[in-house]
Amino acid sequence: MIDDDFTIASVLGQDKAKKMLRGAVRSHRLSHAYLFRGPAGVGKKTLARAFGNYLNCQAPVADQDACGSCRSCRKLKSGNHPDLLLVEPDGAAIKIKQIRELKHALTFPPFEAKYRIVLIADVHTMRREAANSLLKILEEPPPGNQLILSGDEAGDILPTILSRCQIIPFTGLARELVADRLAATGIAPDEAASLAAIADGSLGRAKTLADSELLETRRAIIAGLLEMKQAKRPAAATVFALAEQAAGLADRLPDLLDLVKLWFRDLIMLANHLPEEIVNRDLPGLADRNGVGWTAAELLDRLDLFDKARRQLARNCNRTLVCEDLFFGLL
Fold it and tell me: What's the CA gap between 216 and 260, in Å, rounded?
């Protein structure tokens, strides 16, 4: 999401967050701990690294950004800066062992920089005992340490952590920005526009979708559903095959169901004469729902079926059976 200089200016969007951070530096009013909070994939961790680079830059540009070329900037760019500590989830969560190791590291002063930058990513995954162990450090970090936490807005973060940090809000990116950035990587403009709309302002999610088989599986499932619906009879063998294909995505299955649900949502938009609200613009024939076979009321009912499937997956129900039940229900 940023260029090789790891500068604040190169982070996409997030003008409010940038203004708050630059203002804190100019006024010499840095908070002891920041929490970058907002949607996933919009640049929280990227801006945290860029901000840390700015704080330690030896020749900052116009009191606004890191220079990108001094010794400190070059070390960060190479990933070899001794005063950048990164704590990320170990598996599904940040564990107390990681926080204890961090607390031990902070008993020593920074090696060479003005600030040791401590980036604790995805704090919404932090286990309660780990969060409680972190509280003392958050409230009063040892001198020379700048703590920056990042967390998704949809995740649960303990109030005791929220109360000890200055929150820097992040927002979803404009679709045009995401589409332009995707197109710059060689993705066709139409597909880039669809990915930007589907990702709903998250460049990170858009890139993940572009690099996965999710979109192709989505096309296959929608084509199969349409074929069976227009034939006015569900073909059990086709449903079973589609369900097996979908279940094969394993942990990515919830994302796939969200994508297919978005297609049904697009049909509702078309039924209400709102073609400008369509998200899946890369699917041929979507602009004309004549002959699709679902009434507006039926389409609304289908959305509930997706929510039911997501709940079943959250309870670790058999993925293939969940998909079979869903696809038969959609017809």
Answer: 11
pLDDT at 2: 35
Q: Are residues 41 and 108 in the same domain?
A: yes
**Rounded Cα distance, 256 and 189, in Å:** 22
Quickly tell me which residue has 């830059």 as its tokens. 57
CATH number at residue 110: 3.40.50.300
Maximum CA pair distance of the chain? Answer: 72
What is the per-residue pLDDT for 170? 93
CB 151 within 8 A of CB 145: no
Helix (H) or strand (E) holding 9: none
The phi, psi pair for 37, rounded to 5°, reads -130, 135
Cβ neighbours, 10 Å, residue 240? 15
> Which is it for the CA torsion 258, 261, 263, 267, positive or negative?
negative
Whether 127 maps to a domain, the answer reads yes
DSSP state of 142: P
Shared domain check, 157 and 285: no
The CATH number that applies at residue 272 is 1.20.272
What stretches in the chain show pLDDT beneath 70?
1-5, 63, 154-155, 232-234, 284-292
Q: What is the pLDDT of residue 289?
A: 53
What pLDDT sits at residue 245? 92
- Nearest Cα neighbor of 182 from 168, 161, 197 is 197
